[in-house]
Amino acid sequence: MTNKRRYYDFFEDEKKYPDAVVYVVVSQRGVGKTYGFLRGAMERGKKCIYMKRTIDDVNTVCMGDELADINPYKPINRDYGCNVTPVKLRKGLGYFKDIQGEQETLVAYLAALNALKTIRGVDFSDADYCCLDEFCPTIGDNNVKRKAGASEGDQLLDCYMTFERDRTDRGLPPIKLVLFSNSDNVISPIAETLELVDIISNLAASGQAYYYDPDRLIMVHLITDKEYPVTEAQRHGIYATMKNTDWARKAFGGAFVNNDFSLIDKKTINHSTCIMSCTYKDKTIYVYENMDNSRLYFTHIPHQTRLVYNFNKESDRIRYMRYDNILIRNAIMNNQAVFETYSMYDLFLNFVKKFAL
After folding, report:
1. Are 287 and 217 in contact (CB under 8 A)?
2. pTM score, two decimals?
3. What is the per-residue DSSP string for 220-254?
4. CATH code at 120?
5. Rounded distance between C-alpha atoms, residue 193 and residue 148, angstroms
6. Is 194 found in the same domain as 343?
7. Mean pLDDT of successive 10-residue stretches along the chain, which has 357 residues
8. Which residue range is the domain that position 186 belongs to?
9. What gap in Å lies between CA 259 and CA 251, rounded to an integer?
10. How many domains is the chain built from?
11. Partner residues linked to 98 by β-bridges
């Protein structure tokens, strides 16, 4: 049986932005991101590295059998008469092969993001793409730590460098990194490492679908329900049960209902005094207090101030937490703070958790 449904086609995005090296695609559930990518790569004869976040995820992919096939190629096998099956090599590492009679063909590699020790030393350099499925953990995933420093983002980039090896030295194009996620949360370790949080937030706020940075060679596609509206068949299922709920807006509309954007806005600094500056990574945030209503505004607009923090230094993080963290959090809780970007809001709201203080 052939599936007539329209699925997201990653390779159309690649055609639009052929020079990109990193492709980030975020959407509501059910648009077929993984299906479209794996099918398209097979049709084009392109090898890929299909990544899951954890070793347990890889084990799950490989544990099926003929009666309970749970590998991501199952719908492709159904629709196109393929026979792609997973093979586990060792902890967190495997591959997919297509079996046609006595002939077996390598289709894709399979690797876990947190299996870097296993992956090191393995040559994946014949792959053209690396696809990480569900790069944003779902709410409540206890395996994810928000602590600044080593994170899934660093693991991903370390894995990528292992995959890349000497491709560019041999005159080959770099492996293209493809990241898929549902719209569960704009905040995730990988989004923070790649500095995607504000890009995705701004797309969601503006209603735009695409962002491309020619200097960073990164494309972000925020798929909306306008591109992939709810089908008539879907309207008779769980959609009808959950219509007009936050879950439905997330699952079918791609809304980031788990994020609070109510304090995100751009303001002027008229009638305001700069009371503090806080540097984190390579950016400095300036905190202004409005003289009329005492409301705080967090922005990148620079100004001299006596109170200076550098959150890249542990001593300054501790000093801030001891003297000013409660003041800022109270302002947030009482709606007396406005932030220019969502990443600023998250930094100050979750300061203690982020730096494990």
Report:
1. no
2. 0.89
3. EEE--TTTSPPPTTGGGTHHHHHTTSHHHHHHTT-
4. 3.40.50
5. 10
6. no
7. 67 97 92 93 94 90 72 91 91 92 92 84 88 81 51 89 84 93 90 94 92 97 83 72 79 81 94 97 96 96 96 97 94 96 96 90
8. 10-251
9. 14
10. 2
11. 84, 105
